[in-house]
Every structure is written in structure tokens, then in C-alpha cells.
Amino acid sequence: GREASDLTKNMFVNSKQLEASGKRLSKVIKTARSKCMDSWVAYAKAVQERQRLELADKHVTRDPFVACRLYDRDVANLRKQEMQYRKEMTRLFRDFKVEDGRRIDKTQSIILDYLLAQKAMFEDGIKFTESAIDAVKGIDRETDVNEFIRQADLIVAPSDSKGKRAAALHADNVFEIQPPHRDPKTLSRLYAQECQRQSVLYRQGKFLKTTWKKSHVVLSRSGFFHQFDSKNAVQPEVTICLRDCQVNLAPKEDACAFEIVEPSRGIFSVVGGATRHYYKAESEEELVDWMIAIKKHIPESKIEINDST
After folding, report:
1. Pair 63, 222: CB distance under 8 Å
2. Cα–Cα distance for residue pair 71/187, rounded to 1 Å
3. Cα 265 from Cα 136, distance rounded (Å)
4. What is the CA 64 to chain-centroid distance, rounded?
5. Are 29 and 174 in contact (CB under 8 A)?
């Protein structure tokens, strides 16, 4: 009897641990979902601001592309957390059922042994004992486990795409509210709307002009030229608003190079010098494609095809 009692105590401890794990994982998903909602609101506001400025024939000052890229990153993180939730809760729930099955099997074995011994010892109580034996033999393991889980205030969460099931709390269904436009196809469409052109370009080193750093570069719909450290980076290393810039081919630097001349801004713009950004394409065809794309956002008077000086 003591072994069965210990197993029962362990099951209550395990149920509390399962509940705590459910709360912890639910909190992680809630945080990730909240971050998605915040980044979506930021992107929506940036798009509305762009539309308002375009209708007023004014320049866009904040590029929605970066907000869209942040939202894409946050949705990917949310999917990862949801997958981790299902995987972890499925494992915990499976272990919980196995452990509780052991408890049921052991308890059933102990009771049967006791009642069978009572039957042999007390012939006069054989009818009562046989009735009790039938009752114990009729114990349904699955029903008992489910009842134990119900009493511990646990339920089974919705099935995922593979038919697996994981545990969750009654009052805390983490799958009820989802951020907007989180499916991959819609996200890809949003991203494509904000991105006019992207590819690998090489930026000239600041100190050693003969070195060129490989970068992932994006030209956004709003006319911003973004340089990222890698294709998966969220925040750009360099952002250039093209509308006030001048672009030149730069064959003295490289046959496939061009420069973007960014005017000085701020209180020292009158005396400050312009900033020159040099980039190199992987081929002449790539260079031509970039010049055509950039030209859409720069007045023709600021585009030079001759050597930069």
C-alpha cells in the first residue's frame, strides 16, 4: 500500500509541475504574440503615414519596409515558440500519462492481491469479496487517467497539423488570439510589396579602399536604400533616403561600382561635406539593373553616367 500511496503523491506533484510548465510556456507564447501585435501596429501606422504623405505630395520620412521586416521576424519567432510549446507539452503530457498508468496498474495489482487473499481467508465473505474483485477488474485505465487529469484542472489543447495534442490550462487557451496576416503567403506578399529590389552588393571599406564588404542590400518601395549585414538581419547598418541624393557610376573604383552621394543634414549642413557611399555589383548586368531601379527615386538631374569625381 505504501508504494501505491507514494505513486499517488508523485502524480499530484507531477500534475503541479505540468501545470507550472503550461503556465510558463503560455507566458512565452503570449509575450511573442504581443510583440507580433506591436510590430504589426507599427507597420500599419508606417503604411498609413506613407499613404497620407503621398496623397499630400510630400516626401516619405519613415520607411514601412523596416517595420515589415521586423514583423516578419516576430511572426517567425511566434511560430517557433508555438512549435516548442506543442512539442514540450506533448512530451510532458505523454510522460504524465505513462506515470499515471503505472500508478493505476500498481494500485490495481495491490487491491487484487489483497482481495484474493481475503477470499481465501474468509470463506464466509466470498460473495462480497467476489463482487469487489469484479469492481476492481472493471477499472478502465484511460477513464481513470482522464478523470485524474480533470480533477487536477487540466485539459487537452487543440490538435496541431500533425494530430498531436498537448496540455493547456482551462482558463488560459494560448491559441485563441493570433496576430493578423501571420500566414507565410500573406507575409511574403506584404514583404514583396515593400521591397522593390534586393540582392548582394559589396560596399567599399572606409579605411582600405581596396577592400569590399559583402552586404545584403534592399531598395524599398518608399525610396530608401538599406544595407544589411546579412540577408536575415532585421535592422539595417546603413539607411539612405534617395530623394535628395545623387548617384554616379564609379569606374575609377571598379568597373561595376557606383556611388551614392548623400547631402549633409542638420545644423552643420551648410558647411558640412556630403557623404559618399560606394557599392559594387557582381556583374555589369546587375549594375545596370540597380541603376534603373534607383533612378525611379532620384530626379534625372542627379543621375550621372560619367566617372565620379
Report:
1. yes
2. 9
3. 85
4. 19
5. yes
The answer to whether 219 and 43 are in contact (CB under 8 A) is: no
Q: How many CB atoms lie within 10 A of CB 70?
A: 19
Q: How far apart are CA 52 and CA 170, in angstroms?
A: 45
Find residue 261's DSSP bridge partners. 246, 276
Helices (H), the chain: 2-55, 64-121, 126-137, 141-151, 184-194, 284-295
Quickly state the pLDDT bin for 155 (edges 50, 70, 90).
very low
Q: What DSSP string runs through 174-189?
A: TTS---TT-SHHHHHH
Q: How far is CA 210 from CA 96, 257, 276, in A?
A: 63, 12, 16
Give the tens place of pLDDT for each residue, 282-309: 999 999 999 999 999 987 755 565 554 4
Distance of CA 290 to the CA centre of its chain: 31
Distance CA 35, CA 10 (A): 38
- Which H, E and C letters describe 26-51, residue by residue? HHHHHHHHHHHHHHHHHHHHHHHHHH
Phi, psi (degrees; rounded to nearest 5) at 299: -55, 145
CA distance between the termini of the chain: 93
Q: Is the pTM of this model over 0.70?
A: no
Q: Rounded CA gap, 252 and 245, in Å?
A: 20
Residue whose C-alpha is closest to residue 73's, from 228, 295, 210 = 228
DSSP structural state of residue 282: S
